[in-house]
Amino acid sequence: MIRRLVRKLPVRCHRTILWLVATLEYYLARLKYIIQGICKMLACMTYEGTLGEPEDFPRCEEPVWILGRKYSTLTELDELRSDVSSRLWMSYRRNFPQISNSGYTTDKGWGCMLRCGQMVVAEALSRKHLGRDWRWTPDIRDETYLRIVSLFEDNKCSTFSIHQMVQLGVDEGKEIGEWYGPNTVAQVLRKLTPFDEWNKLSIHVALDNIVIMDEIKCGCQSGSDRAWRPLILFIPLRLGLSEINPIYVNGIKKCLRMPQSLGLIGGKPNHASYFVGYMGDEVVYLDPHTTQDAGSIGTKSDEGQLELDHSYHCFNPQRLIVTLLDPSLSLCFYCGTEKEYDDLCNRIRQELVDGEKTPLFELCVTRPDYMKEDAALGATGIEMEDHHLESDDDEEFEVLQ
Asked: Which of 56, 287, 309, 386 is catalytic?
């Protein structure tokens, strides 16, 4: 349009005006690029909680749900904060023993999703051994609690350490220092459980947006007496293309209200977090993007061990508008008994499948016929996780819209 207007002016002015327009377009494009960069930087800072000390839970009429528990900020604020700070918080660590011969002595910048996976398992073990009502205090020296923490310390001998997780990823084709998605980290944790003789967990990763009830139950029953092995259920989903579809928000909230909820993990490279509840239209999360020194809490017998134990608890949970969640996420549940699992399936059926116009996922008693060929081929391994879509940030999940 500008060029058509220029043609109506005297010929001697054409070249000068067109030069001015071209110069102006260049600087406008540069200005737009700078503004977009600033906006992205501010968004990242907001997500990672680096804009200063946040207000954790404002006093209002809205209830707060944390892993199946309901709180009022008007009358139960201290209890709410105690509950959140009692969750084991895994963050970036530095100065730990080198991972293999990689040269890595910190996971800063790439280990956030691995830390989120650790938090899910740590919460499940706390439920199993300590109970949902257990609360942490700085002077606590409970042997069971200390043993749980030791499973996640940053060394090659700890069962769920980042060293073990990354080494298993290497065996499956993942490079050390490479970012893991929510689906992949769930598969890595599933393959680590046979090495944890103390807890005898059963980790199931529900693929293709389908939870198959009888297969999960069979996987949790072991021995001739079919004794129940505590279940951690991961349900990886993709709830949109570049952003989460608002139609799924209510379903996510319902999941966080269930007593079996272990929260959800999600995000994109360098932005993974562990979401443990919600308040109104905001989700509450523990942010692993804080780098702390590695070490062992031992028996908490000296000042250094006491400080290290303190570093496993978050006193400043963050909040994020739920529609800003990355659409690639994994729902997480814990069922310590078969009765709890049956109750979870009933809740999913009533609240998510029958109670939602567009369910987050399907619930089937047995494997559908169209999936039986995949089962015969054994298509459940980690090698299925890491095929990428057009963007390097995206894992290959079925897109729900």
From this structure: 287
Q: To 5 degrees, how large is the angle CA 186–CA 187–CA 191? A: 120
Residue-wise pLDDT tens digits, 163-181: 999 999 887 778 999 988 8
Selected catalytic residue, list 289, 326, 335, 386 = 289
133 is catalytic: no
The pair of structure tokens assigned to 26 is 């260049």
Alpha-carbon span 326 to 314, nearest angstrom = 22
**Residue of 112, 116, 335, 345 with catalytic role:** 112
Q: Are 169 and 180 in contact (CB under 8 A)?
A: yes
| Residues 107, 115: Cα–Cα separation, whole Å | 9
User: What is the model's pTM?
Assistant: 0.81
pLDDT digits (tens, 9 = 90+) for 43-65: 444 444 443 445 789 999 999 99
Catalytic, 287? Answer yes
User: Residue 14 is inside which H or E element, if any?
Assistant: helix 11-48
Give the total residue count for the chain.
401
